[in-house]
Specification:
Blueprint lengths: L1 H23 L18 H8 L5 E2 L2 E2 H18 L7 H27 L4 H19 L2
Helix pairs in contact: 1-3, 1-5, 4-5
């Protein structure tokens, strides 16, 4: 059960981060028709979120790093390692960093940029959920 929930959250996180990466590199418009309406970003909001200094870590879009993170989680779950010792400790350490980053980015969204980005907050909630699931396996 926990593996399935973990897999679903990581998959949703991968999809959201892939969407943000595609927008950040201008491979697609934020309001593309094939994106479900509840996920679509407004051109103005997306531009404000995706192209701010807070949206980049080590010069790369946060979403690109998210893609690597979620992919590693999915591979770990698929191979049965992500929720097993000693691997869980490595995943847990990275998940803790993502939660800390999520807190900073949420603060930036609300108090610095003054933007309510539903997908951003959903992504941060997914990171917290994955962290809590990893903690629950200990």
């Amino acid at each position: 059960m926990i593996e399935s929930l973990f897999f679903v959250l990581a998959l949703i996180g991968l999809l959201v981060s892939t969407y943000f990466t595609a927008v950040a590199y201008r491979w697609m418009r934020p309001d593309s028709r094939w994106v479900p309406p509840f996920c679509r970003l407004d051109e103005g909001i997306c531009t404000l979120v995706v192209f701010t200094p807070q949206a980049r870590l080590f010069g790369l879009p946060n979403s690109l790093l998210g893609q690597a993170y979620y992919s590693a989680l999915l591979i770990g779950v698929w191979q049965g390692a992500a929720l097993q010792r000693p691997w869980v400790f490595g995943y847990l350490a990275v998940a803790a960093v993502t939660v800390a980053l999520a807190l900073y980015l949420s603060y930036s969204l609300v108090y610095v940029l003054r933007i309510r980005c539903v997908l951003c907050f959903a992504s941060h909630a997914i990171n917290v959920g994955l962290f809590l699931l990893l903690l629950a396996t200990l």
